[in-house]
Specification:
The protein is α/β, with parallel strands linked by helices and 257 residues long. The protein is built from 7 helices and 10 strands. Helix 2 links the parallel strand 2 and strand 3. The longest helix has 18 residues. The chain starts with a strand and ends in a 23-residue tail after the last strand. The structure holds fructose -6-phosphate.
Length: 257
């Protein structure tokens, strides 16, 4: 696991965009699994800026959305599908035929998950998954308990997660109670995993992810046992004293539980 502890959200966003742009430059046909939420917004903006400066070609990129609400159509502005459209696909000019949606409005949700996994396999697997971190340790919508083998599936959103999402809905009781999520298996199989963590409110869960027991109760902790993981955290989210001039490091043994 690589750690990059940066000063603030802006630096986190710029570094994440730089890493993804570098990867796409080397592999223009890369598959990227993309999250929504607050954390990656600066990253998407920074990536769009790099793209508009000609830093990389996005025309052959394949974009998979990480998760989606059940019962919400892709053209609903609150859907994660339209979120990804606005923040990633449109700014980078990625053609619709190169985007794979998780269809939360499908009549057969099991088939929708199967189609998604099949499309990921057909694309040659996942080059990079970008992840935010839920306050309960979820990755995508792999709510605890979720172990490393959890498949792409329908999940029940926890009360805590729904409360966090309420700001995007009129009222808390209108937040969908179920979602589709890319499974832990696919997330952990990605060749590169980029976990973005920002803000003091993520400090406790980041501590658990980095040093707590690796169990289904903290899905994010499975990243510690996985290859190709980079964590970018800002100092507000980093639970330990900020080592001076840390640009890159690995977890010191004494931080382990
Ligand atoms: C969203 C997603 C979630 C979020 C997580 C953190 O597509 O997959 O796992 O990344 O809930 O959300 P924010 O960034 O809003 O704190």
């Amino acid at each position: 696991m690589r750690l990059r502890i940066v000063d603030d959200y802006e630096a986190l966003s710029a570094l994440a965009a730089q890493l993804v742009a570098d990867l796409v430059r080397v592999k223009p046909e890369a598959t990227i699994v993309a999250p929504t939420g607050e954390t990656p917004q600066g990253f998407y903006a920074a990536l769009a800026r790099l793209h508009s400066q000609g830093a990389f070609d996005a025309s052959r990129l394949r974009v998979f959305q990480l998760d989606e609400y059940v019962g919400v159509a892709p053209n609903d502005p609150r859907s994660f599908s339209s979120w990804i459209q606005r923040t990633l696909l449109d700014p980078l000019g990625v053609d619709d035929t190169r985007a794979v949606r998780l269809r939360g409005d499908a009549a057969d949700l099991v088939a929708a998950c199967r189609d998604y996994d099949e499309a990921l396999r057909a694309a040659g697997g996942n080059d990079i998954v970008v992840l935010g971190l839920g306050r309960d340790g979820h990755l995508g919508f792999n709510e605890p308990p979720a172990d490393a083998t959890a498949p792409t599936r329908v999940v029940q959103l926890s009360a805590e997660t729904r409360a966090t999402l309420a700001r995007y809905w009129e009222r808390q009781d209108t937040v969908p109670s179920q979602a589709l999520t890319c499974g832990m298996t696919n997330i952990l199989a990605a060749r590169n995993k980029l976990l973005l963590v920002s803000g003091e409110h993520k400090r406790e869960i980041l501590r658990r992810v980095m040093t707590g027991p690796v169990t289904p109760e903290t899905p994010g902790a499975y990243l510690r046992e996985s290859a190709g993981v980079t964590v970018i955290a800002d100092v507000a989210a980093w639970p330990w004293p900020h080592p001076p001039s840390v640009a890159e490091t690995t977890i010191p043994p004494h931080w382990r539980a």
